[in-house]
UniProtKB/TrEMBL annotation, chains A, B:
This protein's name: NUDIX hydrolase
Species annotation: Flavobacterium pectinovorum
Nudix hydrolase domain residues: 6-141
Keywords for the protein's UniProt record, in alphabetical order: Hydrolase
Keyword Plastid: no
DNA sequence: TTAGTTTGCGTTAATTATACGCAAATGTAG
DNA sequence: CTACATTTGCGTATAATTAACGCAAACTAA
């Protein structure tokens, strides 16, 4: 075997969003070769003088118009050496959580269509993107229980019932509404706003806000976030 | 900027071992260019037709004579585009835990020397290997608390005091010996052997063994390992 | 007014964690 | 042979946390 290395390096972006009590992921439709159209995760080749994290943020922006400042690295996929049939390509996957209600997406260069796709109706995707997405979902599920990332999926101000619903939906678990509320409130990083939900059914509900500063202070004191389920 | 990509892809191996009540990592000494010698993590370029995980296991074997069957992916380092001064190189880091008392290491191709290095006396390493190692250590610490990986660092049969010591040392925390024992035993995946420790001081201690099968059964039933510290 | 709905606060029992006490089983020093 | 140092292994009391549930308050719609 000759020693020459001809491997391309790509990045892929998994962007999770939450709306209508469901978890979504951002997909693009791409044309491959002459005929085939495939849904895929946003992503593409890293440029020569570009860091990996810059690359994934650039590709996401180019293909979906979504402008993020940070994505977290998920995993690097390079064990299947034929994952791309054209060349050997290794892909570093990144993920992010966004408030989907507050985001303008539009197809741009490279992508023909961009869409939020519900997590339980994902089609067959290009390359090994189904595998990548699965890994991202299990990471999301795990992280949800030990870091307060659920708030990233919600608007600035949200209802307790939204938060509760988010947890139940994503983790596919039942949960006691009252104990959940008690526990989260006991942490002390949520603050009540003076605003009420516009929904006109049942008792009016206060809107809450996640206080990141307070959370960071707690962390410094050794606090450890955790949500457990039966 | 031209579209041509000339990025090499490498793998690096972090192998943790435990002996003499201390945590160690496997390092090699390499010659760079004409004069400089540097300690570094084992690793090297991925071959064209080789999966990432095969590559890291091969490199580790070539450089240290340590033959593993599995390593877990840690992180991919590619944000500092000058991390290797010669070319742009992206490195996928993998780590593993081994029973150091049971391992023959020897310098081989590429490496001049191989050595277990105590984690609190790590020298300045080549490239960004200090950064990589730091990340590996924090991953190890985190994982130790929610997966029963401590046993991988011990011999097949071990003393409870060894296990206790391992946790205290790596996590740098105090722990109540009796509560720790009670908790671990309550999980039911440790089995007593008929053997006793050869140490001739104090009351003779039973040797224990980690029953992976039993652990896997528990996992299937929804069990979740956890060791918390004050 | 009444029924339906969701919020927000509370109480109690069960479980788990924490902080210890102490005897058993050895080797060793005198 | 005895007293002592040392480490193991088991136990118990108390505090803290979690889980299970009750119910009134505050609104809308009819």
């Amino acid at each position: 075997m000759k020693n020459f290395q001809n491997i391309r390096i790509a990045v892929d972006a998994i962007v999770f969003g939450y709306k209508n009590n469901s978890l979504y992921v951002l997909l693009i439709e791409q044309q491959f070769g002459s005929a085939d159209k495939y849904w895929a995760l946003p992503g593409g080749l890293v440029k020569q003088d570009e860091s990996l994290s810059d690359a994934v943020i650039r590709e996401l922006h180019e293909e979906t118009n979504v402008q993020l400042t940070f994505m977290e690295q998920l995993y690097t996929f390079g064990d299947d050496i034929y994952r791309d049939s054209r060349n050997r390509v290794i892909s570093v996957a990144y993920y992010a959580l966004v408030d989907a209600s507050n985001l303008e997406i539009k197809a741009d260069t490279d992508a023909e269509r961009v869409q939020w796709c519900k997590i339980d109706t994902i089609p067959i995707l290009a390359f090994d993107h189904n595998l990548i997405l699965e890994k991202a979902i299990s990471r999301l599920k795990a992280k949800l229980t030990y870091e307060p990332i659920g708030f990233d999926l919600l608007p600035e101000e949200f209802l307790f019932s939204d938060l509760e619903n988010l947890y139940c939906t994503i983790l596919e678990k039942e949960i006691d509404r009252r104990n959940f509320r008690k526990k989260i409130l006991s942490y002390g990083f949520l603050e009540e706003t003076d605003n009420f939900s516009p929904i006109k059914t049942g008792r009016p509900a206060k809107l809450f806000r996640f206080n990141k500063l307070k959370y960071n202070e707690l962390i410094k004191k050794g606090f450890h976030f955790e949500i457990k389920f039966a």
